[in-house]
Structure formats: structure tokens, C-alpha cells
Amino acid sequence: MSASYAYLGPEGTFTEVALRRLPEAATRELVPQVSVQSALDAVRDGAAEAAFVPIENSVEGGITTTLDELVAGRPLMIYREVLLSITFALLVRPGTGLDAIRTVTAHPAAQPQVRNWLTARLPDARWESAASNADGARLVQEGRYDAAFAGEFAAARYGLEALETGIHDAENAQTRFVLVGRPARPAAPSGADKTSVVLWQRADHPGGLRDLLGEFSGRGINLMLLQSRPTGAGIGNYCFCIDAEGHIADRRMAEALTGLKRVCPEVRFLGSYPRADIGAADVRPPFAGTSDEEFMAAAEWVARCQDGRF
Ligand SMILES: O=C(O)C(=O)Cc1ccccc1
């Protein structure tokens, strides 16, 4: 197995900056890929140990290419996450002024984060999507577009200059990235973990989603993400990507997943991994009746009842 991490490239993406924040990245070869799909396929085919890709941003929600790959592609698992605060720079070939910009490019997920700025400052510019923000910068270098929204750090890499910096429609916009590998035993609980799953619900079942969510809420498990994605089976057919607080090694999470596996036609476990937003010291204690000890004591009581030893 190759000790390399594939990531959404080319060099100079926000993805690369976020990846370099993981201590383990320092000991791996980092290999840029042209798309999220090719980064994930490199892992599935054994060419890379893991892939690092964007999955969610606080302005627009899920990065659908990544979610759909994790939902429907050959199974993979999430091992780590990184949160990165993002502002954009407008990168141009040296000497280009704002009034000369007719075309702008960036990754589609960048657009909702710069839309107001674009309307105010470059109302007539035509938007074209790029495979990533750094790829947009590369295309500006090649003369294909006049300007790209990307990280300021990408300017030097592509011989461009930043005409404007700090561009962001929403304050504190953050993007979440995940390190994805082939399925294996999740790391032991860190004390502040989350669990990602995809749930399919039975067709035409009134209150189906409420019942699925009840498996979590009834055990005191807080949800951090709920995103529906079409299953591809026609209008009205959705599955649900869910991030929930806790680790599959926690009794309450294991029991919630057991309940979901019984009632859902399909459940895909996407991993239990350390949260990037808070540490163990900030995790609130389990709600009354939902600690490991309370689950175990209750299971022992049932066993004693079954034995007539209560
Ligand atoms: O990493 C990049 O540069 C990307 O193209 C993905 C992305 C898109 C929008 C915000 C953050 C990351």
C-alpha cells in the first residue's frame, strides 16, 4: 500500500492547505488529483493510502460530489476532519485591472461565498466553473479566463497577482474537509468524536424520517449534519447523510445504529473520528440514562429478568 495521500489539486487549493494541518500529512507524499472522484478512486484502487477532499461548507452546505461518492461509490470510511476558515482573493495576470475582467472562474462551491461581491464589483463578468479554485488560477495563468477566486497563497504558484483579498460574503465562512480511506477498524474514541452514516428509509412510510431521527434523539445523541441526497431512483427518493455526536464504541451510538439497521432498508457506516470543532474537555456529559454504564446496567437487569434472578 502506498504511503501517499491524494487530494483535490492542483497545488495551491484550500484542500492542500487544510491537509497540511494534519500532523500525519508531514510523513506522507501528497499527490494532487484533478477531481474529488479521482482522489477517491486512487484510494479505492490502492494507489493511495487515503484521500483528502472538501465535504461541507458553512455557507452552502454539503459538497455534493463528495457526499454522492461516499453515499453510492465503492465503500470508503472517514478517518479525520479539518475545519478551515476561508476568504478569497481575486487573482489576475500581473497588470490586469478590474475594468478589464470579463470572465471569472472558481470551484462551484466558491460562488455562494463571493456572489454579492461579484454583483457589486463585477456585475457584467461571466462566471465559469473550474475543477478547483487552484485549477481556476491555473486557467487564468494560461489565459483562458481573466480572473480566478482562490486562496491568496495560490498567486505565487501560478504567477498571478491578488487584485483584491479578504473577499467573503459571509463572515466566518468555514469549509470542512475529510481524510478518507478504505474501510478498517475506526480509531479508539478520542473523547470528542462524531459518527457519519447514510440512511435509506422505507418508501411511503409516513413519519419515516421522524422515526429514523428518533433512534438518535431517544438515546440522547445530538445531530450535527442532516443532508438529503437523491438516490437516483426518481423524484421523491432520498437518502440522508447524518453526522451525529459520539463514537460507534459508545453504547448509545451502537444501540442507535442497531435500531437503524433493523428499520432501514440500507445503512452505510462512514466512520467514527475525532471532531475538529471542539476537544474532549468541551464535550458535554451524556444525558441522564444514556451513559455506557447505564446502558450496561440496564442490559444486565434484562438478562437477570430473563433468568428469573431479579
Ligand atoms: O480546495 C479548493 O481550493 C477547492 O476548490 C474546494 C473548495 C471550494 C470552495 C471553498 C473551499 C474549498
UniProtKB/TrEMBL annotation:
Matching PROSITE patterns: ACT, PREPHENATE_DEHYDR_1, PREPHENATE_DEHYDR_3
Top EC class for this record: lyase
Catalytic activity: prephenate + H(+) = 3-phenylpyruvate + CO2 + H2O
Domain ACT: 197-274
Keyword Lyase: yes
The organism's place on the tree of life at top rank: Bacteria
EC number(s) from the headed UniProt entry: 4.2.1.51
Annotated Prephenate dehydratase domain residues: 4-182
Listed pathway(s): Amino-acid biosynthesis; L-phenylalanine biosynthesis; phenylpyruvate from prephenate: step 1/1
The entry's keywords: Amino-acid biosynthesis, Aromatic amino acid biosynthesis, Lyase, Phenylalanine biosynthesis
Signal peptide feature range: none
Cross-referenced InterPro entries: ACT-like_dom_sf, ACT_dom, Chor_mutase/pphenate_deHydtase, Preph_deHydtase, Preph_deHydtase_CS
Keyword Nucleotide-binding set for record: no
GO molecular function, one term: prephenate dehydratase activity
PANTHER family referenced in this protein's UniProt entry, alphabetically: PREPHENATE DEHYDRATASE P PROTEIN (PTHR21022), PREPHENATE DEHYDRATASE-RELATED (PTHR21022:SF19)
The protein's name in its UniProt record: Prephenate dehydratase
Organism: Streptomyces andamanensis
Gene: pheA
